[in-house]
Amino acid sequence: MNLADSNNLINWKRYSKAGSIALGAINLNDNLLIKGDNLVVLETLLPFYKNKIKLICIDPPYNTGGNKFNYGDNVSHTEWLNFMESRLKLARNFLSDNGIIYIHCDDRKNAYLKVLCDGIFGRDNFITNLIWRKKAGGANDSQDIAVEHEYILAYRKNKNGIYKVPLDDKTIATYKYEDEKLETHGKYKIKDLNDPSLSDSPGLHFDIECPDGGILEAGEYQWKCNQSTFLKRLNDNRIIFKKVNRKWKVYYKIYLNEQRGKLHYDKDGNPVQRGRNLSSILYNIALNKDGSTDIKNIFDGEKPFTYPKPVKLIKLLIQSATKPGDIVLDFFAGSGTTGQATLELNQENDPRTFILIEDKDFIQDITVPRIQKSLDLYNSNESFVYCEYNGFN
Ligand SMILES: C[S@@+](CC[C@H](N)C(=O)[O-])C[C@H]1O[C@@H](n2cnc3c(N)ncnc32)[C@H](O)[C@@H]1O
Question: What is the assigned CATH class of domain 32-164+277-360?
């Protein structure tokens, strides 16, 4: 079965950073950009991608009533829910067993979409309702309460498929010390070994002898680990004694490349940095205006699309739910932010594939050039394949 043989998809073209190139064979790990109504395009793609998509990341029209941007954004509430229901039911079939779906929405639609998704994906598969802070300030311009956030509903198909995301630069900078383990373990930071906030346990109370022979007594301190772990850490040069206000304090080292006491390696055998769990409040990631800057950077200062999502936000979502080799599907592609975010990750030697679907004519003037310019921006040797749903116009 070959996707290019499907009668439903026509006008195939392949683009590289240099422009249109020979089409060649189409593989399931080709990046795809398809023009057409997502319902019929998804139906066409399903036999090829059933249970194969690791992440669906969509930003559907919020149905704000404006219809300013020809989003199909001005329908009745029931129509909107029916529209979403048919597409989400179909979309679920694409997800792998540990597949994840992220759905952007605003606070007016969130409750309804949550109930709809509970019915489609199962209440037990609801992960959380991420809160994305999309703008800062402007409170005095609001009529009543300044709404600074949107939501991203997160569901799994069946099994857990959320991964740790990379630490941000500010956090990485806190790992500033070096020792003999630098090459493998990276830099380290230190943390107080005394932690009275832990629930009391006799195993966490023991005497510690300081470098000058003084004793920190069991009765006064509650350490973060038991004595045998402490001694192992001491012998492995993972404990630091420091005098603070003329009193000894004990610290333990946390290495940048160690996760739960273990080193992890990439496919080239290099140690990888520890990650962090994504937290449900996406506070200082990127704002709406960063999405505008991203697209302006691609289109020489012009802004051909209103309110694209910020690349940084989408990149983080992709990192949280995919590993190299996985496919990301966005069937409300708009200007193609999901494509650009995937290519940005791929540039960091983290290859993923995208499938984008968008039904509006602007795809030719905005989405295709944006993805092509992104290939150039990231000096990527990848290509993407464009095609159209037959009989769409
Ligand atoms: C909110 S925008 C997505 C913006 C995108 N996240 C970005 O950063 O550019 C929603 C998009 O879905 C598209 N859309 C709406 N209904 C569609 C349909 N039935 N099939 C395909 N695309 C559709 C709209 O044209 C619009 O571009």
Answer: alpha beta
